[in-house]
Amino acid sequence: GKVPTNRLQNFMEFGLEAILGLLTQVMGKEKYAKRYFPLLASFFILILASNYSGLLPGAGHLPGLQAPTSTLSVTAGFALIVFFSTHYYGIKAKGIKYFKHFIEPIPFLLPINIIEEFTKPLSLSLRLYGNIFGEEMVVASLFALIPLFLPLPIMLLGVLFGLIQAFVFTMLASLYIATATAEHH
After folding, report:
1. How far apart are CA 51 and CA 127, in angstroms?
2. Tally: H helices and E strands in the chain
3. 127: buried, middle or exposed (CB in 10 Å: 19+, 13-18, 0-12)?
4. What are the CA-CA distances from residue 30 to residues 19, 26, 37, 176 (Å)?
5. Which in 1, 6, 159, 170 has the greatest CB count within 10 A?
6. Using CA atoms, how far apart are residues 19 and 46, in angstroms rounded to an integer?
């Protein structure tokens, strides 16, 4: 490929290589990580940008200017994409044998396994929403007390938390896809 010519391109390539490396560790093989990389990297970048948009001046105080991930409908939308992608990729990889995992280790567990499949995206969406919404509420409360300096440390932590939440969502999504497409248990 081409040699990066500027710092922004170097930074972007480093970031994408880091995401690919983490996905490879979670999914086991680089070929799987590369196969699902567009979806998972898109999640990471979109969630990170959404989380960081809540750090803009006036975010959370002005109507319509808040982090998209502080809205349950947005995080539920992300989780639904993960839910349907997981099953789509599982069926694509295993065919009809994909549904066998619902009755393992014993058929009696079918209802519990089905509930688990719906619980995964629910927990993904609620975790992301709760953390981002909670951080925004803390910053808004502190801003109401002392407008300039008190919210600053929490906002700086928000930079770290925004990255962690994007990372956790992406890693869990990759784990769900890897589990659904695994060749063996």
Report:
1. 13
2. 5, 0
3. middle
4. 12, 10, 10, 16
5. 170
6. 13
Angstrom distances, CA of residue 136 to CA of 55, 72, 89: 9, 14, 35
Contact 90, 36 (CB under 8 A): no
Q: What is the pLDDT of residues 90-132, one digit of tens each?
A: 999 999 999 998 888 888 989 999 999 999 999 999 999 998 8
b/e string for 142-168 if b means 16 or more Cβ within 10 A?
bbeeeeeeebeebbeebeebbeebbee
Residues 124-162 pLDDT 10s: 999 999 988 888 888 777 777 777 777 777 778 888 999
